[in-house]
Amino acid sequence: MISCRICETYIAPFMSFGKMPIANGFLTPDTYDSEYFFELAVGYCSNCQMVQLIEQPDRTKMFHDQYAYYSSISKRMREHFQKMVADIFARYPVSDNPFIVEIGSNDGILLQNIAQKNMHHLGVEPSKNVAQVAQDKGIQTINEFFDRHVAQNIASKHGQADIIFAANVMCHIPDIHSVVSGIKYLLKPKGIFVFEDPYLPDIIDKISYDQIYDEHVFYFSLTSLSHIFNLYDLEIIHVIPQDVHGGSMRYVVAQKNAYRLSEALVHQKQIEDQKKLNHASTFEQLRQNINGSKLQLMALLNDLQKQTKRVIGYGATSKSTTVINYCGINSHHIEFISDTTPIKQGKFTPGGHIPVRPYQAFSNNYPDYALLFAWNHKAEIMANEDAFSNSGGKWIVYVPSIQIF
Question: So what's the pLDDT on residue 65?
């Protein structure tokens, strides 16, 4: 048991995925012996209702100068953030010379939409290599982990922020109290904090257990987030469900009583109440569903192996690390994983040690089946892979259920 990171209530795991490596820790054979592992287990706090990892590796093991995820590789995500910025600017007024901050700005995929408007901006990105990519684009970026201290430094140099963005970042940060405190300090009285993260009810409904990995220390709901923001006189004023990353929620947060609460927020709270997120039985059922998904996927892969069918993984995602290691998938089940990210190519997957090869290794010699690890980009991928399907190739998808198409 550990203490809840939000309210310090003791919590115990409802699910363990066993020994797990760093999700983005793609490696070479000479480093196999020193590969880091921890127990990937997730628990639920009965007091504040925050779902969270029981143990999370030190942040420097996850975010560093060899971080293997660049947001801008996805055309869909580039378009998503462009629309996100336009929507927020249309909904909420800003000053004539606004200051915009992004927490966890990656390679500048969101802030480039601000920089193009010649607006005062600053990205805060802890991984040096992706921060450098943003800087090379002319996007003002500092290589730091955002917290209260960094927020104070930013405010002293630039003043308070009209808008603070964070996209798929808040759920990564174990010391969330320092981050929320920093946001409170940095926001103007009518400023807003806009962030998106995977949404717990979507994970439950879709059995998308691959959203659970080392970087994602929290799995948010409105109730659990409201608890932490309330401690700092902040409140969620609006929510907008998103279909990116397999089901996310966009939250708009402001100083308490600065804005009216939206009808969408009230409606979403009612939906959460109906889903019984405060019942232990909900998470026991999730555990059973996850185990059932594993058994079905492995039965399919073992059957295809017996038939000597060629199966290749599509997308060496961080999420695939959970699936590969929890299910026990190895290079006998899938020949290799195709990925377009150069820093991953020529390396091997964490834990399972399955080769990662360039996209051309897939497109030059199509397999019988492609296991779609990047299922959250399915629409974009399907639109680009007619040739594979027309050649007789079949896709395997495991979210929300095991399907072949």
Answer: 58
